[in-house]
Amino acid sequence: MSESPIEAKPGQKSYRVVCILAVLLFTLGIAGKFHFSSVGMWNPYLDRKDEVPGLVAGTPKFIRSDDWQLGVPWLLSQYNSKPQWPTSNPSVGAETSALLVGLPTKHWSVIFRPAQWGFFFFDFERGFSWLWMFRTVVLFFSLMFLCAQIGAGSLMLGLIGAIWLYYSSFVQWWLASVAELLAYFSLTCLSLRMVFQARGWLCVSFAVLLFLLFGVAFALAIYPPFQVPLVYLGLALLPFLCWGGGTHSARSWWMRSACVGVAATLAVGVVVAFLVENGAAVQLMSNTVYPGARFSVGGEMTLARYFSGFFDLFFRQDLFPKEYGNISETSSFIILWPMVALCIPGIYRRREYLRCMPILLFLVGTTFWAFLGVPRWLAAVSGWSLVPTSRAVIAWGIGGVFLCIAIMGRQPRMSRMYTMVVAGVSALTICVHTIFYRQQMGLEVPNLWCLSATLVSIILVWAVVFNIRWASVASLCLTCVVPYALVNPVMRGVSVLTDSTLLRAVQRFDIQKQGTWVVIGEPRHAQVVKATGKKVINGAQYIPNLELWHRIDPQGAYAGIYNRYAYIGVRFGVEGSPPLIESHGIDVWQLTIDPCGGGLKSMGITHLAWVDYDSNAKFSCLERVYVEKNIAVYKLTALH
Fold first, then answer.
1. Does the residue 227 lie in any domain?
2. Is the pLDDT assigned to residue 639 strictly greater than 60?
3. Domain membership of residue 627 as a residue range
4. How far is CA 201 from CA 8, 193, 204, 256, in A?
5. Final residue in a domain of this structure, among 484, 518, 534
């Protein structure tokens, strides 16, 4: 079988059909305003209706707060700001936070953020659908084509890999956070593969431009805990991306490599220019207590956590090992590579054996780092100091799937005895692990469920070892698609937020959006006010505005609390009392302040929105200008 879909003439038609299907799904998704955001979670916190507007299937998830509580209000804030799509938005954070967090802006870097292009061509809801179609349709099909390339050009193996990765519990529970990054990673790898497969230099030039586009897009995602492992994984994939599948001369290969080198140099230059231009924001984030001060040397992984993916199908938003904190932190991948790696000596071609070795070394190295750790100097030099052990699951999770796909695509013959030994060892390993994991975690899972999970996992291992592709698809559907297909709900539009009482109540004031607002109540209520385009000092702040907080804390006594990415709540304090800043967690703090004590005035506050306000409260410095249901809007007038 040929390794390259470009060389395999009969296979070109099937690739075209898949591409047409992807474009069709992408287009229909945008036309119907479909998305997979949990924005419906705002329903009980705003108008308290039982029915979620726009919900098509599934249920919104509270744990997806980075999506519904941060992402959507920030996007609406950018859209409704005056001027629209600013690079500096105080509601998001200090300096150019909007650029660093990856929001749509009128900045040259948006050229390298294709997931955001829809906001500049369509209305907000269809732009939002474009974003989510990129996170889902583009991600799935890019993973499919990448796995096909790793699997010797087989679209069937590409489908197996895409299902395995896209419907893993990790990707589904982290979809809003990791989808764009994974899509850019896959598209960068595919572009590189295209450079070395293309026959004409016009196609090569186009592939080089795509490599530059998606490579910069990947870098500008700016989330090192996921980026660092993926960069090393990308390097391990180079033998699959740059060699094989072509009939080009050595001279042509070196010329293509030179083109890639030029594109990579340009990409580095673009990223450096971006970081230099936004140096103030980068420095502020780097000097925060959280997450800037994190430093990891690994060594925190446990055997049960490493292989927990076998039991992910039993976990739910309210059912997971409590020591992991939440279902997102619990999520993982089905890890088969330690067992399947035994098949590598059965690959009879030495060249193919060597091509698998970089991925295997990557998996062994990251596993060593996770379980035993490395010296601090090595962690700092390699960049792995930026990767908490819990985030590195993306490394061996995705890399392990790639290794399995590579082995399935390169198994011309293996002795029956050898394959029986490998399959037997793999099955025994899973059985022992299932018993061990269930006892250690103390999960109240019925024995029948345990047996079913073990059997399905054994089928998957055997299917990979014996290269039985239909069995792989069937077992992956049972272990991944069925449990996780609706982790992220299917919705249309964002009217649940834009039509809310709180948003409507504040939208009619400060039409020019020149004032500064504070929201009394929970931090999430401040996020709703931000969605109107108003400048709001509390709620979620990506980079802390230190200059602002120093106005009420000139000595910096509370700097250790507010110098962090955090959700900020504000409440009224006793008249005459000094401002009080209290930590409520690693990313939550609260300000208690006398509204007429001068603190709000010093911070430039002009308006207040008070959720669940006290109708009997009287303030000489506040003028109540609007009341609707449980919401009151005030203007800050004169101090007493």
1. yes
2. no
3. 500-636
4. 20, 14, 5, 9
5. 484
